[in-house]
Amino acid sequence: MDKQWAGIIEPGAPPTDETQLLWWLLPILIAGLLTLYYRQRPRPAMRRQLRHLRRRLRDNRLDRRNAGFTIADCLRRGRATTRLDRLDFGTQQANWRAFLDKLQHAQYRPRPPSQSELDTLLEDAMAWLRR
């Protein structure tokens, strides 16, 4: 029986084409997966700002009329490195823009949004950041 078919590789045998291809592609694949993972993580500054806004809303120290704009502005700005135009989320970017429009829509209503509507918006924001 041939040694190659038996699954035995001789110590001095040259690597096959498949093995060389695997060793070339493995680091590229790992680097790509790490890049995707770290790009999707929410930034700590944005988490802090959302926590702060949520606390102010609970304590009623934030005017409800401006709350939608303030939260949307906070989420959009983040830090200079997390600006929306610099993020590349593909299909998520459309969801992000729709989410910000939903937040900003609360400001232009004739009546201020209710506390339950603001809670819903904040929960949506926190859910988006946890992704």
TrEMBL record:
Tagged with keyword Transmembrane: yes
Membrane-crossing segments per the record: 21-38
Alphabetized UniProt keyword annotations: Membrane, Transmembrane, Transmembrane helix
Protein name from the UniProt record: DUF4381 domain-containing protein
UniProt organism field: Thiohalophilus thiocyanatoxydans
